[in-house]
Amino acid sequence: MTLRSMTGFAQVKGQVNAQLAFALSLKSVNHRFLDLHFRLPSDTDALEMKLRRVLKEELARGHVEVILSLDRSGPNGVALNRQLISGYVQAFRAAADEFEVEGEPDLNVVLRMPGAMDSGAEKSGDELEAAVMALVGEALSQLNEMREEEGRSIGTELRARMANLEKAAAGVEAHRSTILSSYSERLQRADTAGSCGAGGSQ
To answer: Looking at per-residue confidence, does 99 or 80 come out higher?
Structure first.
């Protein structure tokens, strides 16, 4: 039977397209039951459900943290959603004219609006899901390999400790025999001395 620790780490990296890459990390520590925690990008609920199902099939125990990080640093990785931004700016200026309020749109506010920046990830949801699921098996293999390596180290340490305990127990047993023998001799001498003393007083 393979002894497997609950401590381990694995990471796999993949490429979705020219604009999008990712890294999937699994980190496991000791826990009585299987406790899965996900740190995934937004709008990946379907991917989380698939990952959860696979991990439950392959892992029995441990606190497991699942992290998916995206890298959009490729060429043309980020672009402006011009239609959305233009609509916001026009609406802002129309409201300013209607209510006779002076001011200009704040670019920082505009760019923080959901969808204002096209990263390519939103358009690659199915591709990202397929790419991640294609590598999750490799990540699990790495994780289990590390857990088995930790398990072998723990097994070696446990066997060494058991050997030391057996050696100590043997020493205690030998010492016990010596003590019992010495105590028995003392009792016999005491009995002999008592018998002689009783005979002399008659």
So the answer is: 99
What length does the chain have?
Answer: 202
> CB-based burial of residue 176 (10 Å sphere; 0-12 exposed, 13-18 middle, 19+ buried)?
exposed
Question: In the chain, where does the domain assigned CATH 3.30.230 lie?
Answer: 8-76+122-149
pLDDT band at 78 (very low <50, low <70, confident <90, very high): low
Q: For residue 183, with 0-12 CB atoms within 10 Å meaning exposed, 13-18 middle and 19 or more buried, which class applies? A: exposed
Q: Which CATH architecture has domain 8-76+122-149?
A: 2-Layer Sandwich (3.30)
pLDDT tens-digit series, residues 93-130: 888 888 888 888 888 888 777 777 665 545 567 899 99
How many other C-beta atoms lie within 10 A of the C-beta of residue 192? 10
Closest CA to 134 of 48, 51, 26, 38: 51
